[in-house]
Amino acid sequence: MGRYVIRRLLQAIPVLLGSTFLIFCTVYALPGDPVMILGGERRIDPVLAAQLREQYGLNDPLIVQYWNYISGVFVGDFGETFQGVQVADLFAGKFQVTIQLAVTALIIEALVGLGLGLYAALRRGRWQDHAVLALTLLLVSVPTLVSGFVLQLVLGVKLKTELGIDFFPISGTEAGWRSFLVPGFVLAGTSIAYLVRLTRTSLMETLRADYIRTAVAKGMPRSRVLGRHALRNSLIPLVTYLGADLGTLMGGAVITEAIFNLNGIGQQLFQSVARRENAVVVGVVTVLVLVYLLANLIVDLLYAVLDPRIRYE
Amino acid sequence: MRVTKGARIVAGTALLAVAVAACGGGGGGTATNDGGGSSAQPVRVDIAKPQHELSPTNTNDTSGAEVLNALFVGLVDYDKDKNVILRGAESIEPDAESKMWTIKLKDGYKFHNGEAVTAKSYVDAWNAAAYGPNVQEGGHFFSAVKGYEDVAPVDPDGEEGPQKAPEPKAKTLSGLKVVDEKTFTVELAHPYSGFKTMLGYTTFMPMPSAAFDGNGGIKREFGENPIGNGPFKMAKPFKLATDTTISMVRYDEFVEGKAKIDAVEFKISSDKGTSWNELRAGNLDIMDQLPPEAIATAKQELGDRYIEQPSSGVGYFGFNARNGEEWAKNPELRKAVSMAIDRKTITEQVFSGTRVPADDFVSPIVAGYRKGACVECVYDPAKAKALWDKNGGGKGPVSLSYNGDGGHKEWIEAAANNLRQNLGVEVKVDAFESFAAILDELDKGKVTGGFRMAWIMDYPSMENYLRPIFGTGGSSNHGRYSNKDFDELLVKGDSAKSDEEGVKFYQQAGDMLVKDMPYIPVYFYQTNAGYSQRVKNVTIDPFERIDLAKVERVS
């Protein structure tokens, strides 16, 4: 068991090195000169441009630039942005926001997704089932940009100005955990729909299994049949999905973060790609790769908890 | 159940870790309440994220300038008619040829730490901005001052070359001299009658001795917690990387009189649509730029509290007249293109009225702008077609290039359609992935036809719309227009005895542009601002900065 975990963690090292190098190359290969981009619509003074290039080692070949970066990372120096901000400082506050958003989204996704899926599976073929399926179609087809602004207008502006209920803030993080409810739901939207459908199908399949019929036949209480036998055996695909989704929710929140003015990593990543800030982009990717690897490890370990037949040596 | 005990423990711990991380995060967000607790809420102003830390020497973006304008007061300001008025300066006098300027300061201005504003405060700040190795955004503003090439030397073999830029010969500008406590002189490299108009920008503001590191540079902490001489002072330091608000309180000893409001909070937002919702819900007081989609609703909902005024930007089509397509080299054909573009429809439909049709090469906000100066900027499809055919315009293809990262696609396509319909030519539209990429290609002379270009002024003078873009060797002369007579008129304007006389020469230079049409002006940018019911007296200057000292609360 312990050896298995250690082996998995060691495997993460080459994955990390490889992925950071790939990303470094990709950003390097993007057209446009980072120093000129820094100037935006204005022309940067040639003297200033030459100095900036020198300062950030942009005249060095790719492999030297990568080595400069990665050797810094080993001693805990994540480099600095073109604005002279330490990347490590930049991450401290932003990952906190992003993690809060992603975890809120994941909780909402798990509660709503599993709940509705379970409900639909139990009412199979009836109108409630069809209603839930229609709802998932709606969730999948409305883009984040639309659902974000509509919910912001309805729950943030109208609820406050028309009814005087000031519960959902429009944007920002001043209101603590409440700030993340609406963005969390918007971010989880599509995932909720998939999870509902996955839960429904998975559970319906299990409910048809022989051992469920046996359990019902021997007079076991319905709740115990459902919880102990049906749900537990349906959970493996769902846990896999949820685990993989955590990484997606953390890395893919660019639009949601922008709409709700959350100062998180998604927006930072977007800006940094536009500015060709390799140090930031690679840093973010490193952390996201770690999140993916850890989430997958947890999921794999959960398999053993859910299904006793699976064991790791 | 034969789950191995180890697996349970590990999985459990991992889940716990995730939960703890989530909770730990929760604490941080709630901590920011309304700290001060003195009187009402501060006046909340929407801004985009400043590009750099808050130092006058390193600020060249509208958001940064907006924030610094509340903290600092410079030598001059501009009145409603965009004329220069003295503020920190008692007098600014040129010599006979407008080359040597003597600046006298008013008494009474103090920095927030009690230090008096002296001639040295200005000279030191300007030297720090200009000194090449300090890498300050504002540096190029001082290229007009004598000795600039000694403090910021040019790389001998160009940007791409292997040689480094040489070490600067001097640490300070030889053209700046402190005469006494309240007087200093500025010697320019060339005569320039409009020098006074430059001085209102953020780069020219004074800085206290606490800002400097003793080595000609600026302390890093100063940019986080700047000490100014203006109506407001920082309430707490601002960390650019992570903070989302900038808080200021009133500086009670401000010599021009206390500001009307006691506190200001700048809120950094990432999406103007969201900020607009915040304004409607009463969580925000002033927005200096509304999103285009909100303009119609804003006019209705805000009424008097909606502001619409010209800003300094001009949008153009430029042409590669040097080695581009045949049509781009012929001024008559360029005029035909200009007359074939329906500016009114483009500004109204594509930009929802946030831009207005251009009718001169300079923005309406500078002195010397003449309404309708560009006669061929008026939409006239019949005349355009006749002119095009008469000069052998043919079937094209006409190529139009633009940068795809700036929201320009719609209006470029609209203009392309105008040309197709009105001139009967084939039009090819090329999108470059970024503005930087199009500049690269322009430098190499590889953009063949027309290209989108825009200009935002550095200082409110006609000259700033002419020399950098159309002067021979100008820093932004992407069309490589070169006209000796034009250059001479600019020099005459620079050495004129007064602003008014200078403007006359600049206008003559403008007329040459109308004749040659090296670029065609398409639209002027506008400021579309709005404010809440809780404030009044909101005014916005040519640099799109709000005059916060005049803003009042509605009680």
CATH architectural type of the largest domain in chain B: Roll
CATH topology of the largest domain in chain B: Dipeptide-binding Protein, domain 3
Number of helices of chain A: 13
Write the CATH fold name of the largest domain in chain A: MetI-like fold
Low-confidence stretches of chain A: none
Count of discrete domains of chain B = 2
**Beta strand % of chain B:** 15-25%
What does this structure look like?
The complex is a heterodimer of chains A (313) and B (555). Chain A starts with a helix and ends in a 7-residue tail after the last helix. The relative contact order of chain A is 0.14. Chain A is built from 13 helices and no strands. In chain A, 76% of the residues lie in helices and 0% in strands. The model of chain A has no long low-confidence stretch (mean pLDDT 84). Chain A is mostly helical and 313 residues long. Chain A has two domains: 2-88, no CATH class; 94-263, MetI-like (MetI-like fold). Chain B folds into two domains: 44-227, Dipeptide-binding Protein, Domain 1 (Dipeptide-binding Protein, domain 1), CATH 3.90.76.10; 310-526, Roll (Dipeptide-binding Protein, domain 3). Chain B has 555 residues and is of the alpha+beta class. In chain B, a hairpin with a 5-residue loop joins strand 4 and strand 5 (100-105). Chain B starts with a helix and ends with a strand. The longest helix of chain B is centred in the N-terminal third of the chain and has 26 residues, at 5-30. Mean pLDDT of chain B is 84; it is low at 1-5, 16-38 and 156-162. Chain B has 17 helices and 19 strands. In chain B, the strands form four sheets. In chain B, strands 1, 8, 9, 10, 11, 12, 13, 14, 15, 16 and 17 form an eleven-stranded mixed sheet that branches. The chains are: A mainly alpha (313), B alpha+beta (555). Chain A: It is found in: Cell membrane.
